């Protein structure tokens, strides 16, 4: 069976526009069991589409929302560069089921999928990336500014981000192929949106809506990976024992519970998994699962208005925090902390675009931007918070430099 990456290479070599791959890698777990791919959309919209009719996962809309799409839902953000949303309508697509070990064509074929799958594998794409420029945010100063607002009682926690840019030549697909080897994650994505290409190895789900079931997987709390098993275990113990990290994670889980509660049936919000530790190539995280049952009559716009942007990448209270973020960050985040996903009859599944490289076409090739951020609370150390963003961005920066990393590992539950 061909892998999603092998098919994506064939699709790109065929020159098909609008190729989108939503890929689940790493440990085979319930929340990361399927991958979706299609290309050549029959229509593109820059507004939120309606869910297709029917019970099959294709036809579907594939695409996503930049962080600045929050303005659509009445929240504060900079004006976007270009369009704030991109959704392509795909009559058919490929679906990989990692549990069953199957690859299926779903929907009314609008492409010759058999010919694409049977085509010879093209040469590996190449990409060269220049030196990254200076950060666009004085991060320690931003942390101190947030702490003043916390002391004034205006906010509890703010997720501040920083970004760097570089020039690039070649095919961004090369970055994705490296990234899936270096940092396999459950919510990976490659999206060719014409003038922009998004490459992501996100570990975080914004929201999944299937039938009446809603779920989210908030991440908050980070340590770098150790260089030895003993050091790795020590960092995990430190993460679990940190009052700051545990308090921050608990607060953000409560925020996500509140967000889902806005569209959930009364009394249906639960947290079946609390503060697992998930390991990726350069960092480990505290992760929880929040579930709910959708209220009767809820629409896609209702669900995204309640959950987007994710609370873990904004802060609390969300509305005021987003005003603060707009004032402290010098420009739009773009795809970073937005979301890519699928909208179909039986399924809506959107990730949070962290660990993301955003490519924008230029006359000479591409500009690539990498951003990272972290949650600031009252007792945060500005220098340590700045260093944490470096660890978070390291997988992407290493990929762009061609440096290998560690494989992901299954999540570990809390120690009783």
Provide tags for this entry:
single chain; 416 residues; alpha+beta; Anthranilate synthase; eleven-stranded antiparallel sheet; 9 helices; 26% helix; globular; disordered C terminus
Structure explained in plain terms:
The chain is an alpha+beta fold and 416 residues long. It has one domain (4-117, 131-412): Anthranilate synthase (4-Layer Sandwich), CATH 3.60.120. The chain has helices spanning 4-13, 113-118, 139-151, 173-182, 229-241, 243-261, 300-307, 318-328, 382-401, and strands at residues 20-23, 34-38, 43-45, 60-65, 85-90, 92-97, 102-107, 127-129, 157-170, 187-192, 196-202, 205-210, 213-217, 219-224, 270-279, 283-293, 315-316, 339-344, 347-351, 356-362, 365-376, 409-412. Strands 1, 2, 6, 7, 8, 9, 10, 11, 17, 20 and 21 form an 11-stranded antiparallel β-sheet that branches. Strands 3, 4, 5, 12, 13, 14, 15, 16, 18, 19 and 22 form an 11-stranded antiparallel β-sheet that branches. Strand 12 and strand 13 form a beta hairpin. Helix 3 packs antiparallel against helix 9 and helix 4 (173-182) packs across helix 9.
Number of DSSP strands?
A: 22
In CATH, the architecture is 4-Layer Sandwich
What is the mean pLDDT?
A: 92
Number of helices: 9
Task: Look at the structure and name the CATH superfamily.
Answer: Anthranilate synthase
What about the largest sheet? 11 strands, antiparallel
% residues in beta strands:
25-35%
Distance between the termini: 41 Å
The CATH class = Alpha Beta
Q: What share of residues is helical?
A: 25-40%
Quote the CATH topology. Answer: Anthranilate synthase
Low-confidence stretches: 403-416
Give the number of domains: 1
Q: Structural class, from secondary structure content?
A: alpha+beta
Shape: globular
Radius of gyration: 20 Å
């Amino acid at each position: 069976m061909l892998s999603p990456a092998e098919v994506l290479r064939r699709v790109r070599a065929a020159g098909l526009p609008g190729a989108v791959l939503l890929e689940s890698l790493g440990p085979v777990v319930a929340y990361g069991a399927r991958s979706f791919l299609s290309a050549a959309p029959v229509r593109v919209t820059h507004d939120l589409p309606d869910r297709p009719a029917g019970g099959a996962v294709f036809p579907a809309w594939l695409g996503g929302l930049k962080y600045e799409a929050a303005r659509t839902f009445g929240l504060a953000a900079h004006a976007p560069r270009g369009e704030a949303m991109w959704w392509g309508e795909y009559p058919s697509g490929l679906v990989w089921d990692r549990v069953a070990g199957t690859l299926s064509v779903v929907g009314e074929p609008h492409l010759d999928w058999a010919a694409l799958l049977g085509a010879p594998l093209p040469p590996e794409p190449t990409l060269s990336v220049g030196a990254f420029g200076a950060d666009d945010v004085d991060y320690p100063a931003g942390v101190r500014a947030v702490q003043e607002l916390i002391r004034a009682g205006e906010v509890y926690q703010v997720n501040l981000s920083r970004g760097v840019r570089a020039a690039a030549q070649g095919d961004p697909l090369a970055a994705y192929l490296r990234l899936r080897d270096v940092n396999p994650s459950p919510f990976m994505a490659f999206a060719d949106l014409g003038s922009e290409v998004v490459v992501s190895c996100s570990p975080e789900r914004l929201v999944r809506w299937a039938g009446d079931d809603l779920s989210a997987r908030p991440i908050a709390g980070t340590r770098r990976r150790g260089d030895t098993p003993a050091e790795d275990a020590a960092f995990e113990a430190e993460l679990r024992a940190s009052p700051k990290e545990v308090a921050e994670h608990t607060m953000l889980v409560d925020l996500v519970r509140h967000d889902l509660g806005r569209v959930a049936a009364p009394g249906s919000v639960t947290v079946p998994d609390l503060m697992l530790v998930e390991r990726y190539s350069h960092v480990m995280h505290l992760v929880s699962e929040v579930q709910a049952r959708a209220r009767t009559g809820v629409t896609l716009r209702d669900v995204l208005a309640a959950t987007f942007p994710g609370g873990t990448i904004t802060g609390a209270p969300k509305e005021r925090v987003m005003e603060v973020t707009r004032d402290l960050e010098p420009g739009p985040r773009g795809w970073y902390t937005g979301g890519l996903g699928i909208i179909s009859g039986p399924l809506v599944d959107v990730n949070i675009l962290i660990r993301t490289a955003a490519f924008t076409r230029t006359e000479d090739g591409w500009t690539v931007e990498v951003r990272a951020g972290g949650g600031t609370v009252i007792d945060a150390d500005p220098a340590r918070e700045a260093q944490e963003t470096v660890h978070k961005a390291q997988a992407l920066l290493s990929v762009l430099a061609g440096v290998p990393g560690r494989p992901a590992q299954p999540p570990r539950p809390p120690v009783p």
